[in-house]
Amino acid sequence: MKDTLRITEIFFSLQGETRTAGLPTVFVRLTGCPLRCQYCDTAYAFSGGEVLSLDDILEQVASYRPRYVCVTGGEPLAQPNCIALLERLCDAGYEVSLETSGALDVSAVDTRVSKVVDLKTPGSAEVARNRYENIQYLQPRDQVKFVICSREDYDWSVSKLIQYGLADRVDEVLFSPSHQEVSGRQLAEWVIADNLPVRMQLQLHKILWNDEPGH
């Protein structure tokens, strides 16, 4: 429907990862995702949700008086009206980020948005879905994330970091351990040993709230 989106939840919490980790943020979680990553922690957003107008979404976001807004999913770009939502959030004066799998075209995303593009590693079971054409649309304000499930994933991620010159293309390259597959300590030791130009991150929301929905 015109000017509507299917929404799983809108909530106010601390950003758990990325460049703004720890900052109070409103999350707008869109319903639906064409991918099935084996480590997905938001499968509850694959279906269901509530159809809301863009005006209703903006009104709910404004009620929290946020500085930061994160549009996430699922895969938010699977709904075409996500593009219009991002533009309206930017027009409202928020610092806006978009969490996307990188499997869908990001070329139409408002340039004011910080795109957090997740390059899928082999261990995700969705590496074939990576849309490498998206790399040409990355700007310094954007971020690239790798969720690492094994040493093989780490080596693959380093190869992509080098191949695409990601550290020079975006402000932040994020390496995150896949929960219960690679320990934070192990990933930290690999990053230190190779002196990588990346930010190793843990998911703050898992540490604080054990990944409960609404956080």
TrEMBL record:
S-adenosyl-L-methionine binds at Y39, C40, D41, G74. Its cofactor is [4Fe-4S] cluster; S-adenosyl-L-methionine; Mg(2+). One of its GO terms (molecular function) is lyase activity. InterPro entries: 7-CO-7-deazaguanine_synth-like, Aldolase_TIM, rSAM, rSAM_QueE_gams, rSAM_sf. Its EC number is 4.3.99.3. Coiled coil: none annotated. Signal peptide: none annotated. It catalyses: 6-carboxy-5,6,7,8-tetrahydropterin + H(+) = 7-carboxy-7-carbaguanine + NH4(+). Pathway: Purine metabolism; 7-cyano-7-deazaguanine biosynthesis. Binds 1 [4Fe-4S] cluster. The cluster is coordinated with 3 cysteines and an exchangeable S-adenosyl-L-methionine. Binds 1 S-adenosyl-L-methionine per subunit. Substrate binds at L14, Q15, G16, R29, T72. Keywords: 4Fe-4S, Iron, Iron-sulfur, Lyase, Magnesium, Metal-binding, Queuosine biosynthesis, S-adenosyl-L-methionine. Transmembrane segments: none annotated. Mg(2+) binds at T42. The keyword Protein biosynthesis does not apply. [4Fe-4S] cluster binds at C33, C37, C40. Residues 20-211 form the Radical SAM core domain. CDD domains: Radical_SAM (cd01335). Catalyzes the complex heterocyclic radical-mediated conversion of 6-carboxy-5,6,7,8-tetrahydropterin (CPH4) to 7-carboxy-7-deazaguanine (CDG), a step common to the biosynthetic pathways of all 7-deazapurine-containing compounds. Belongs to the radical SAM superfamily. 7-carboxy-7-deazaguanine synthase family. NCBIfam families: rSAM_QueE_gams (TIGR04349). Homodimer. This is 7-carboxy-7-deazaguanine synthase.
